[in-house]
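Box 4.2: Ligand-aware structure prediction
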Amino acid sequence: MERNVSSQQIPGSPGNPIPLPKEKKLLHSYYAGARLPSPMGGQLDVLGVREGEGGAGKVLLECNVSSLRFVLAIPKATRTEKAKVKEAMDAGDELTCPRHGEYQRLSKSGKNWVCALCGVSYGKSG
Ligand SMILES: [Zn+2]
C-alpha cells in the first residue's frame, strides 16, 4: 500500500502530471491543432481534456518518449470570447470555439457550453 502511495506522487505519474509552462506559444500551437513538443524530447499525445475550475480547462498529455504525464492549463474564457459566443447564441447561430475556430462546435455540459478540445466553458444556456 505504501508503495502504491509513493508511485502516485512521483511527478509525471498518472496521478501527478507535471504542469507545462504557461506559455502563449504552447497554447497557440494547441489551439492550432499542432502536436506539442515534450520537455523530455519527443512529442506529447493528448490523453484527454477535462473541465477545470471556474470555467478553465485542462489537457492531459503523455510524452511519447518518456511516458511521463503532463498537464496543460487552458485559461478560462475572456469577456470578449464570452460576448462573441453570447452573440451567436442570441442570433441562433452554431456555437463554435473562439480559439479552435469555426469548425469546432461547442457542446453542452450541464448548463455550460464547453469546447471538447479546450475544456473551457464559453457560455451558459438558459
Ligand atoms: Zn476550443
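In the box above, the bound molecule is zinc ion. The longest helix spans residues 79-91.
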